[in-house]
Amino acid sequence: MIDQYFEVYPKKIEKVLSDFFKMKKENCKNENIKNIIEKIEEYTLRGGKRIRPVLMIFGYKLFHGKNIEEIIKTAASLELVQSYLLIHDDIIDESLLRRGKPTIHKTLEKEYNDKKIGVDLSIIAGDLADSYSVELINNSDFDEKLKYKAIIKLSEIIEYTGYGQVLDILSVFQTDNLEENLLLIHKYKTAKYTIEGPLILGGLLAGGTDFELISKYAINVGIAFQLQDDILGLFGDEKTLGKPVISDLEEGKKTLLIIKMLENASAEEQKKISKILGSKNISFTDLKYVQDLAVKSGALKYSQDMSERLVAQAINAIKDLEAPEKEFLVEFANYVISRKF
Amino acid sequence: MIDQYFEVYPKKIEKVLSDFFKMKKENCKNENIKNIIEKIEEYTLRGGKRIRPVLMIFGYKLFHGKNIEEIIKTAASLELVQSYLLIHDDIIDESLLRRGKPTIHKTLEKEYNDKKIGVDLSIIAGDLADSYSVELINNSDFDEKLKYKAIIKLSEIIEYTGYGQVLDILSVFQTDNLEENLLLIHKYKTAKYTIEGPLILGGLLAGGTDFELISKYAINVGIAFQLQDDILGLFGDEKTLGKPVISDLEEGKKTLLIIKMLENASAEEQKKISKILGSKNISFTDLKYVQDLAVKSGALKYSQDMSERLVAQAINAIKDLEAPEKEFLVEFANYVISRKF
Q: I want to staple B197 with a disulfide (CB 3.0 to 4.6 A). Which of A198, B30, B126, B157 is the partner?
C-alpha cells in the first residue's frame, strides 16, 4: 500500500511543481530574477522521496477528503517549504552537494565567481521558496477557510523547525543532557516537520479537527524516522542511499549512535572518534572503526531498540482506528524502521 | 494629521509587539530557544518610524474600517516582517549596526564567540520572525477570510521584496541601464514593500477590493521616498537621522545621486568617487567632495526633480478621492520629499 503511494504521487507532485515554475518564469520579465527562479526550480525538482507531500495526501484521505486532484496541487507546496529550509540548511552546513548536485550557494558562487554573492543570493532564494509555497496553496480550489487553517499551521510547523535548527546549531556547546537535547531536536526538526505536520495539514484540508491520536502516532514515528536515518547514515549502502555513507561523519553529526558510543568508550576510543568526526578525509578504515565501535559499545542496539519502542508506541496510539487507514499507518511505521534508504 | 498618526500609533504597535514577545517567552521552556526569541524581541523593539504599520492602519481607515483596536494588533505584524527582512539584510550587507545597536549576527557572534554561529543563528532568527508575523495576524479577531487575503498579499509583498534584493545584490555587475535597474529595485524593495503593500493590507482587512488608484499613488510615492532616503543619506543631519551620514558611502551604495554624478563626471572625478565608494575610512573632506560634486554635476537636482515629479503624479492619481482621506495622502506624499529623517 505504501509502495503504491510512493509510486503514484511523487510524479504528480513533480508535475504540479514543474507547471508552477513554468508559470513563474513566463510571468517574469527580468533575466536576473528569472535566473534565481530557475535555480529554485532545478533544486526543487532534483528528486527526493517526496515523503512530506505524500503524507499530506494520506492525511487528507485519512480524514475522508475526496478531492484528490486539489490535495495533490496543495501538497506540492511542502516541497517548496523543503527547498526553503534546505537552501538555508545548506548555507549553514556549508554543504557542497544536495541530492548529488551542487547546492544553490555553490552553483551561484561559481556563476558569479564570488562566494559571498553565492551565499547572499541563496538566503533570498530560500525566502522566495517560502513565498512560493504560500502561493501554491492559494492556487488550489479548497475553501479559503480551510486554506487559511493550513497556512497558519504550516507557519507554525516552520517555526518549530527553526527552533530545532537553533538547538542543532547550538548543540556543539551542549555538555550535559545530550540525549534529551538530541531527541528534542529530532522532535522539532523531523517528527513535527516531516511526519506530524504533513498529516495534520492534509487532515485540516479535509475538514478534520481532532488530531490528538494522529499527533501522538506521528511524533513517535518521526523520531524513529530520524534515528533510522542516522543508522543508515553510518551503516547504509551508498548506492541505495544516493550519498556517500561517510558524509554524516564528515559533517561531524552528533547522532544518538555517536552520543551513546562516546558515553561507553575508553579515553583512547573517545580520542579517536573525536578525531574522525568532522574530519575532511575519512578513510574506509575510519568508517569501519566507527561502525565496529557502534556495534561493540551497544550504541547501535540502543538506537534500534529505541526506534522499535517508538514505533510500537505509535502503532498502539492508533489501535482504535479502522481499516484501511490504520493499515497504511501501521505499514508506514514499520517501513520507517525497516527502510534501507 | 500625519504627525498625529506618528504620535499615536507607534506606541500602541510597540505595546502589541511587547505583549506578543512576552507570551512567546512565557510559552518557551528551552533556554537556548528563549535566548533567540529575546534577540528578535530586542531587535524589533529598538524603534524606528513604524511607517509600515502606520500606513496599514491608515489604509484600513481609508477603506472605512472601524475596528481600530484589531487593525493595530494586526498591523504590528509588519514590524516582524521588517525584522525578518532586516536580519537577513544585515547578514548580506555585513552590517555591524542597526538602529544604533549591534546587528543580531554580531550580538550572537560575540555571545557564542563564533562568527559563523552568529550568522547561522541569525538566518534562522529571520525565518522565525516571518513565522511570528503570521501568528500575530492570526491572533487578531478579523474574519478568517479577510485574514487569509491579508496573509496571501503579505507573502506576495515579501516575494517582490526578495526580487528587489536579488537585483540589488547583482547590481554590482550592471553595466548599462543603471538608472532603470535602480528604479526597479526601488519599486520592489521600497515602493511595494513600504508604501503600497501596507496600504493595501489595511484596505483588504477593511473589506476593500479596488486598489488601482491607491496602488498608482503608492508606487510613485514609494520611489520618491527611496530617492529622498538617498538624498538624506548624503546631505542629512547625523543627529536627526540617527546614523552617520557617511554610512551610505561606506556601504558603497550606488544611489541615483551616485549614478548621475558618475555619468557626468570627468575621468579624474570618476576615479576619485570610485575610490571613496565602499572605503572604510571616509574623511569629512571626502564627504564634502561627494556632496559638492552631487550639486555641481546636477545629480542632486536630477534626483529632487524626479522625486517631485513622482509626488505630483501620486497626488494626481488620487485627485478624485474625497476628504479626509485625500488630505492625509496628499500630506504624506509631500512629507516624503520634505522630511529630514
A: B157
